[in-house]
Amino acid sequence: MAMTLQEIDVLLTEAEIKHEIVKRSEREVISYVYSLKEYVDGEDGTHKAQFFITLEEEGEYIKIIAPKLYVYKEGPHKEAVLQVLLQICWKTKLVEYEYDASDGEVRLIIEFPLEDGKLTKKQLERCIRGMVGIIEDYHQVIDSVMRSGVIDFDLEKNKVGDLGAMTGLLREFEAYLAAKKAEEGGTKPPPVGLEE
Predict the structure, then answer these.
(1) Distance between CA atoms of residues 48 and 170, nearest Å
(2) How does pLDDT run across 26-72, given as a tens digit for each residue?
(3) CB 64 within 8 Å of CB 51
(4) How far apart (Å, rounded) are the C-alpha atoms in residues 148 and 150?
(5) Is 63 exposed, middle or buried (0-12, 13-18, 19+ CB in 10 A)?
(6) Which residues contact 98 (CB under 8 A, 6 or more apart)?
(7) Would you say the pTM of this structure is higher than 0.85?
């Protein structure tokens, strides 16, 4: 009972996330772009991050990747940068930062086996929400350590220990989903994801 990209395409469409199926490294993947508030892309200075969803092992394994969030190949603070990435992984759920020593790429990934199950819309939304939240919450921490070598978790936006802030964010997202479902024939909120 493997998943297909077409099934994930349907889930993203139901969640009103703009996306497209594209070729990347000789295989089809789903691509979507999120506009963010805190995160700034170091290459082009925009507040956007690109994401890819790919299936492996004949649809029994899924990866959701935010590639090239940062690049730090060589520099005086490499040890501190790697340390802060590991600390963030320790403090959070679901997501992991990965570091490619060959080119300095830092990316965020969620990967897990589907095996004989199917990914649900709710699971996919949680993955997307989790990735976006981690990118936003820890951007200032990562950016600061890359520039100064100082690890400062006081720069974290929604502290993991601050359940009030996290609960508030969850309630906002749930209210948004409820409002979407309640609308009947009115104007719909703008979809998130790829820009037109």
Answers:
(1) 22
(2) 889 999 999 999 999 888 889 999 999 999 999 899 999 999 999 99
(3) yes
(4) 5
(5) middle
(6) 106, 107, 108, 109
(7) no
